[in-house]
Amino acid sequence: MEDKDLLIEWAKRLQSLAQAGLIYGKDDFDLERYQEIRDISAEMMAYKSDLPLQKVKDLFCNEIGYQTPKLGTRAAIFKDDKILLVQENDGSWSLPGGWCEVNMAVKENCIKEAKEESGLDIEVERIIGIYDQNKHSEAIYPYNVIHVFFLCKPLGGEFKKNIETTTRKYFAYDQLPKNLSTDRNSLDEIKACFEAYKDPSFQVECD
User: Fold this and answer.
1) What are the domain boundaries of the chain?
2) Which single residue of 66, 96, 107, 205 has CA 20 to 30 Å from 130?
């Protein structure tokens, strides 16, 4: 592991310990120390990620309770042996998906996000994989991110321009765009989607 990655992992661990201490600690002096540790962890993350300190604090230190990974979904929608990608506002391409809502089951969230970003109504067929994005993405996250990828079938629907995506398009594997949004889905993850689509006996992958 590179020094930069190692320091980020240390910052995450310190943040997690400090957050637990702020919840379960009783002594006022201990709580003050836990808060200082949390602030130091945010400064470490900002220094190594080149993000503004306040943005790191908003992302990294805005929760209460025991810290757990963020959970998101990605819909692998196939038609005629091609996979559907949506174009994000920054011009990159990704599978439709997003963070899980607190009042929705994971499968329901996948259906909702696919509709919002691609305009498609879908049928979720099965899970492709449950991936730790820290192992599949070069992006620097201030927290752990878990993505659940689902194999899906399109049922119909028209694309509507929205605040997140600008268009949608089906791609063959050998024609995937160069500018994939790798913080949302890596090339290896998309490859696994094609393998699951072609092989009914594909075994669910799990990090």
Assistant:
1) 6-61, 70-206
2) 66
Copy the structure tokens of residue 60.
């990294």
- Phi, psi values for residue 106, rounded to 5°: -60, -45
> Which ranges of the chain would DSSP assign to H, the alpha helix?
3-24, 28-49, 53-60, 106-118, 187-198
The SS3 call for residue 47 is helix
Amino acid at 105: A
* pLDDT at 139 (0 to 100): 66
Mind listing the pLDDT tens digit for each residue in 88-136? Answer: 999 999 999 999 998 899 999 999 999 999 999 999 999 999 999 878 8
Contact 97, 164 (CB under 8 A): no
Q: Could you tell me which residues come within 8 angstroms of residue 40 by beta carbon, excluding any fewer than 6 positions away? A: 14
Whether the Cβ atoms of residue 110 and residue 150 lie closer than 8 Å to each other: yes
Q: Among all chains, which residue has been given the structure tokens 């309770």?
A: 65
Is the distance from CB of 113 to CB of 98 less than 8 angstroms? yes
- The C-alpha atoms of residue 154 and residue 3 are separated, in whole angstroms, by 44
Q: 3-state class of 119 per DSSP?
A: coil
Using CA atoms, how far apart are residues 78 and 92, in angstroms rounded to an integer? 19
Chain centroid to CA 107: 15
Q: pLDDT tens across 9-29, in order? A: 788 788 878 888 888 888 888
Answer CATH for 70-206 from 3.90.79.10, 1.20.1060.10, 3.40.710.10, 3.90.245.10: 3.90.79.10
